[in-house]
Amino acid sequence: MGRIVVVTTGGTIAGRRRGAGLAAGASGREVLSRAVVPPGVSVEVVDLCTLDSPLMTTARQLTLLRKVHQLFAREDVEGIVVTHGTDTLEETAFLLDLHHHDTRPVVFTGAQQPLDHPGDDDGRRNLHDALLVASAVTGAGTLVAFGGKLFAARGTVKSHTLAVDAFSSTEDGPIGEVRDGTVTLFKRPGRPAPIPMPPRTVPQLPLRVDMVMHHSDADPALLRAAVAGGARGVVLVATGAGNATPAFTAAVAEATAGGVLVALTTRVPGGPVAELYTNGGAVDLVAAGAVPTGLLRAGQARIAVLGALLASDEQAERRRLLHHVLALPAPYRAA
Ligand code: ASP
After folding, report:
1. In terms of pTM, does the model score above 0.90?
2. Does domain 209-326 have CATH number 3.40.50.720?
3. What is the architecture of the domain spanning 3-188?
4. pLDDT tens digits along 24-37
5. Which amino acids bring their CB within 6 angstroms of ligand 1?
């Protein structure tokens, strides 16, 4: 029988009350000691860290990425589950998906209710479901199992601050579900080929990739400040289908001329960035060098930029890689 390795990183699934609020505090072993392990599944724990996920860093994400690749070098590992805080789960999961090179799955999960929640908290259910998915699904890359739903990492967003059904997808909804102990896959996600792994030591960490949001009255001074502050990438979170102003267009042109990767996403929850409007709209921003991010929202657009920057030192190759990971996946096909 193969085994599932659970890599724990903290989050509310490892959370309990501390002083006036909640914080991650339980070890991986403690999280697992409360898990309902599906019959026939054998579990091994790797306790990576105990972190509230707003405190996640690129360095820790890369440690996790390398650990996952090390585990995939083992033949006895059937699948990997990662427990993670829900706040930045979509970012870490997408970074791992960009580098996912194996038919075996990585399944992210977490909880909205802490470990010391009275009664049957969602973390126990989600961990059970993630273990089941990790032992049942192959060839689908990195996944997110949460609230009985199964998502491809790509396109997943935290869409409710408090509900146990916390995630949705900007791509194409859930790709499956877990119900009554059975995993059903509706479709398989289309995924671009994995990008090269970052070098073992990345001297320039933290590698700055900042986000700037457009809104009425917005001043591109913040975008210029990001570049002046050393950002090698910027995500412009625009309005509508990816629109800002002529002043932003000028700032984007300066940034890209200076070798900064600029990705263009939108603050609207649904639909793609589309080159429809001029006068500072997506037509002009793309002409100024911004790369439209399709259906990806800000958190994952930033990870796409970060992944491209980490994978190569060459400016042209970084841009090529960014286009590669942002290309719309092949149409979903029935599972
Ligand atoms: N703030 C928590 C975190 O992301 C929320 C959670 O885990 O659900 O670590």
Report:
1. yes
2. no
3. 3-Layer(aba) Sandwich (3.40)
4. 999 999 999 989 99
5. 11-12, 24, 52-54, 85-87, 110-112
